[in-house]
């Protein structure tokens, strides 16, 4: 009723581009989340210094079906993908 007041248009929510991002109700990835948050605190919120922790957290979420499995390069981790390809076998 209040949305019709003063000729305001009705709010129509739009879904996120990459689908839903379910909450981790069972705390399956809480360890990785806390490691990432601790890294951010140590580095004065410089996320570039916590790339490894971010990748571990997203990897946990993908492994536990809390997000869609996506190529690392599409999540901004191109350099780690290239490093793995250039490593000699056996490492």
UniProtKB/TrEMBL annotation:
Principal location class: cytoplasm
UniProt keyword annotation of Disulfide bond present: yes
Swiss-Prot/TrEMBL keywords: Cytoplasm, Disulfide bond
InterPro entries listed in its UniProt record: COX19 (IPR051383)
Organism listed in the record: Stomoxys calcitrans
Recorded family membership: Belongs to the COX19 family.
Domain of life: Eukaryota
Protein name: CHCH domain-containing protein
UniProt xrefs under PANTHER family: CYTOCHROME C OXIDASE ASSEMBLY PROTEIN COX19
GO cellular component, as recorded: mitochondrial intermembrane space
Subcellular compartments: Cytoplasm
One GO term of the biological process aspect: mitochondrial respiratory chain complex IV assembly
Key word Cytoplasm present: yes
């Amino acid at each position: 009723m209040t949305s019709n007041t003063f000729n305001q248009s009705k709010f129509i929510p739009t879904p996120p581009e990459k689908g839903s991002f379910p909450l981790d109700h069972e705390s399956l990835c809480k360890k990785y989340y806390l490691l990432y948050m601790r890294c951010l605190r140590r580095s004065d919120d410089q996320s570039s210094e916590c790339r490894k922790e971010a990748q571990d957290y997203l990897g946990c979420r993908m492994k536990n079906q809390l997000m869609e499995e996506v190529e690392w390069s599409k999540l901004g981790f191109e350099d780690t993908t290239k490093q793995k390809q250039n490593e000699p076998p056996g490492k």
